Amino acid sequence: MGSVDRATLTRGGNPVALAASGDRAAGAVSGDRTGGTGAGIRALVVPHEERIAVIAEEQRAVDHAYDCVERRRLGVDRIRSTHGQEHPDVGLPFVPDVPPEFGVEDDLGEQPLVFMRVDVADDPDGRETWRIGRRAVRDAEGDLVVISWTTEQAIRWMKARASRPGEIRLRRKLRLHGRTVTDYLDDIRPRVANRRLQEVPEAVSPAEEPPGENADAFLLADLDRARDGLMRDIVETIQRDQLDLVSDGRPGVLVVQGGPGTGKTAVGLHRVVWLLDPTNRGLAPDDVLVVGPHRGFLRYVSQVLPRLGSRGVATVEVARLWDGEVRAVDTPAAHLVKSDERMAEVLRRVVESGIRPEAPASHISDDVFSTPYRGAALTLPGAEIEALVVEARDSSGPYLVRRRKFVDTFVDRLLSRYAKALPGQRPDGALRSGIEKHGRVASLINAVWPALNAETILRRTLNDPDAIHAAAPGVLTEQEREAVLRPRVSRASEEPWTLDDLVCLEELRHLLSGDEPRRYRHIVVDEAQDLTPMQARSIARRCPGGSMTVLGDLAQTTGARQYDVWGRLAGILSGRDGWHLAELAVGYRVPDEVMRFAAPLARAVSLSTTVPVSVRPADETSLTIARTGPERLADEALARALDLATADLERSRSVALIAPDGTALLEELERKVAALQGTVAADDVPPVSVLPATMTRGLEFDHVVVVEPAAIAGQGPAGPRRLYVAITRCTQSLTVVHAAPLPELLGAPEAPALVAPEEPATSPITVQNGSAPPVPEEPTISPLIAQNGSAPPVPEEPTIPEENTTMEPDTPATDESFRSFVSSLEERVGADRRCHVHEQVRYRLIAELHGARLVPSQSPLADIVCKGPRGAVLYEVLGEGGHTYERMREAVLRIMEVEHVGGDRAEHRFLVLPQAPEPAWAPAMLTTAFDITTIWRDGTGWAGEDLATALGQAPG
Ligand SMILES: Nc1ncnc2c1ncn2[C@@H]1O[C@H](COP(=O)(O)OP(=O)(O)OP(=O)(O)O)[C@@H](O)[C@H]1O
User: How confident is the model over 28-46, as a mean pLDDT?
Assistant: First the structure.
């Protein structure tokens, strides 16, 4: 037997590495590092020559694919040259798979053309082996050599589970460096062991692996690569749940909720490519619009679509969707009113109030409008004019279209009376037009139905208290009306238009003339949690078909407005096909340690969202908290950023310094970095960016240094959410440098397990270089963090109201043993809550109960208690692996202990499991024996007995 290169581990039944050649990919694999359960470990020993032979075979196939590309390129060049300079591309439509702008190699950049091989049994096309790549490639006979990853067939194969491979006999992931195959990984293999492979029988659970559990060596290596400030596509390592959303074929709006780094942006961009594929929706590039939060974000994602072969898709920064220049910023109060969809009603009323059916007295005498005109009179009774106005007003259509209707009928009536009075006159177009332009006629028209423009109306609404007060009754409160008023400026050109004003102006143009902005067949909106309702209305107008992909995270809202659930925004955005919500729950960016550090803050800022489980292995260098004096903040942060930027000798690592917006600290950092960059040659400039916290949405860096988080969190109601965004931008490490105490939800100063009050926390800066003054009063850094940078255990969640806790413990203070019992129980409950799965399930249920308009609460002992329409309910939640009978029995005991301490028994008691129980008879057993009911997570919903009671639904 040949030499052994690498063993393969399986997680959840999937082999995760095979025969890697000692590079980082395979080196990254271990059951522990990927957080796996260790179940089903299969050792697979691959002889060296076997590996060489496989790589050689794959290399031949890859070379052939590139040869075909080259052949096609020559063919295209030939066609172009035969059609002359003027119409070089006229014959190209007849060449299969030619991208709109030919040049596959250039489009791909460094990305490999081919990344997967699939062998199938009983293939209807009569072939056994297929290769999947970023583009389709055909050979000289027109046969497919590589199929595009976007085809239905490729997606089905990429999504297949190792435990249910279907027709797949072999699925081989390929790793290439340029055009060279360097490695491969077979994650579905022939069932019959190859005679050259020796397989140790596996003990694999047939249960499907939870999301993220199939993280393989290629994925982990990919996540570890240095970030150069530009996003890359993820087709080679895309995960099943992500691919499901990319290829979701349902009509309507698809809302993708997901915590930081769960791949929402990646999913949105890959979905665009999927939609453009002629075998899927076949949209043209200019049918699609991608809306991003800011220019930096658009730059960051700019390479992804071209690399995937999709050029010509418009991308736009959200604020640029509306015509006009933003000259000012609204006060928070004005912003909240003007961006609310009630503003659309106010504007509608302002516009309609322009129509005044009763002609003013100056135009009417003796109830008749009459004016001399070329030897006769133009006359019409006032009542008739009023009827014409009312009729046009009550018809459908925009203001100016209805005005035209009125003008036409009014002039027609004048004309016909006039023609009768002067029989020699021909009622032709010239006469008609003359009558319409006649001064008194035009003046009456303008008096009853003025020709308005959007700017004039909005200025009046915002400057004139009478206008807004007249339009707002029943829609805006007195205070809200006051909030939008601003002093009048004398010239329209000086009006301080804000972004919300520009959105209102578009709404007004729509009301006035029916003006439609450019329309698209599909719109992707990223960071959509920050859209205002008025912006959402306007975006919906751009997509009358209601086909959109809406990506966001409610916990990352950085604007003044926060949505508890997606329903409100999605309802505005969607059309007749409605909307669907999907959630991504696995994080691919942020290291586990940093995510845990951020988790309490995430839960505090949005109860309804799931904190992602990080697929990136824990690493004790991922998190550093450092305290220094206020005068040294900038220097200390910069020193740390530079250290990080230059620490990795093998590759350049990107670093972001994130500071509170609009502060002297931010300016100081910007100045210092600019000065530094001015002093070194371009090649030596460390890749350090300085960013205000509000400009970090959607971005990522290898290392992030967040400076003075308390100041970020303190910047208005959105501050804590901005801080959450800032601390979740890193792929390698987060450093927090602070002078002020850390915000409670980060440092958790009062969490007893973390703080040793008698021991002043030591700043690592002080310890390391002695440069910072000691800060003896520092109460916020846990010794745990200061010593090893690891994240604290998740502290007790303080945000859920405690009222309604019918089973609040009532400890008899005199009974020492009872107290010890209670504290041991609390400890066990606390330990459970440090399990991600436990907390995911628990918060999901809490969100569900809030959705049912109940007020769930928790205590140090009870996971959830809730007074529902069917009485008080106590829930005991189980974490990872909690679906076994043994764990369920333990949980029953826990319920009894909790009730014993509370001295009360709930009317309903539920066990809440993360997945379906095994064995299936367990719930019935527990109901019969203990009167405890079991429910569990089932995909994105719930299953089990008596769900109506469990989910707080009213009887009947
Ligand atoms: N399946 C995957 N394989 C490799 N990398 C992935 C995968 N999924 C996501 N990533 C990487 O994780 C990082 C985060 O992805 P992305 O920016 O799409 O997340 P997000 O959910 O939009 O994050 P945020 O909400 O913080 O903006 C990116 O570097 C992306 O390339």
Answer: 34
pLDDT for position 265: 95
Total length of the chain: 956
Q: Is 304 touching ligand 1 by the criterion CB < 6 Å?
A: no
Locate the ligand 1 atom nearest the alpha carbon of residue 227 and give its number: 29
Q: Tell me the per-residue pLDDT of 702-718, one tens digit each, with 9 for 90 and over.
A: 999 999 999 999 998 88
End-to-end CA distance of the chain: 70
Tell me the C-alpha distance between 860 and 101, whole Å.
62
Q: Which residues are within 8 A (CB) of 664 and not within 5 positions of it... i.e. 6 or more apart?
A: none
Task: Give the integer Cα–Cα distance in Å for 200 and 45.
Answer: 9
Ligand 1 atom closest to the CA of 729, numbered from 1: 26
Atom 1 of ligand 1: nearest residue by CA position: 238
Q: Quick check: ipTM above 0.95?
A: yes
Q: Give the DSSP letter of residue 93.
A: G
CA distance linking residue 101 with residue 930, whole number of Å: 69
Rama region for 706: left / alpha / beta (φ>0; ψ in -120 to 50; rest): beta
User: How remote is the CA of residue 731 from the centroid of ligand 1, in Å?
Assistant: 10
3-state secondary structure 937-948: EECCEEEECCHH
Q: How many angstroms separate the alpha carbon of residue 233 from the centre of ligand 1? A: 9
Cis-peptide into 774, omega within 30 deg: no
Measured N-to-C along each axis, helices 439-448 and 382-393 cross at an angle, to the nearest 10 degrees, of 50
Distance CA 842, CA 846 (A): 6
Report whether 227 contacts 700 (CB < 8 A): yes
**For residues 402 and 452, what is the distance between their CA atoms, to the nearest angstrom?**
13
User: Helices 454-463 and 342-352 meet at what angle, rounded to 10?
Assistant: 110
Between 198 and 688, name the one with better pLDDT.
688
For residue range 401-429, what is the model confidence (pLDDT) as tens digits?
Answer: 999 999 999 999 999 888 888 777 777 78
CA distances (Å), origin 431, targets 408, 411, 434: 13, 10, 5
d(CA 134, CA 105): 11
Q: How far apart are CA 331 and CA 625, in angstroms?
A: 35
Output the six-digit token pair for 880: 């990872």
261 is in an annotated binding site: yes
Please give the pLDDT value at position 604: 87
Best CA proximity match to 522, nearest among 249, 760, 193, 858: 249
State residue 284's pLDDT score.
Answer: 92
Asked if residue 627 has pLDDT above 80, the reply is yes
Residue 326 amino acid letter: V
Domains and CATH numbers, the chain: 1-45+197-210 (no CATH), 48-194 (no CATH), 245-326+516-576 (3.40.50.300), 361-448 (no CATH), 592-788 (3.40.50.300), 816-950 (no CATH)
| Angle (CA) 6 587 524, round 5° | 125
Cβ(261) – ligand 1 distance below 6 Å: yes
Q: Which residues are paired to 864 by β-bridges? A: 875
- DSSP label at 857? B
Q: Has 264 been labeled as part of a binding site?
A: yes
How far apart CA 529 and CA 318 sit, in angstroms, is 12
Cα distances (Å, whole numbers) of residue 797 to 5, 129, 724, 857: 47, 53, 16, 11
pTM for the full predicted model:
0.71
Rounded CA separation 48/42 (Å):
19
**CA 146 to each of CA 136, 137, 262: distance values in angstroms, whole numbers, following the listed order:** 5, 5, 29
- The answer to whether 47 and 3 are in contact (CB under 8 A) is yes
Q: What gap in Å lies between CA 326 and CA 670, rounded to an integer? A: 25
CA distance 430 to 438: 12
- What is the 689 CA–ligand 1 centroid distance (Å)? 20
Q: Amino acid identity, residue 843?
A: Y
Q: What is the mean pLDDT of residues 18-27?
A: 31
CA-to-CA separations, 185 to 49, 159, 218, 224, 355, in angstroms, rounded: 16, 16, 8, 18, 72
Closest atom, ligand 1, to C-alpha of 266: 18
Phi, psi of 512 (to 5 degrees): -80, -55
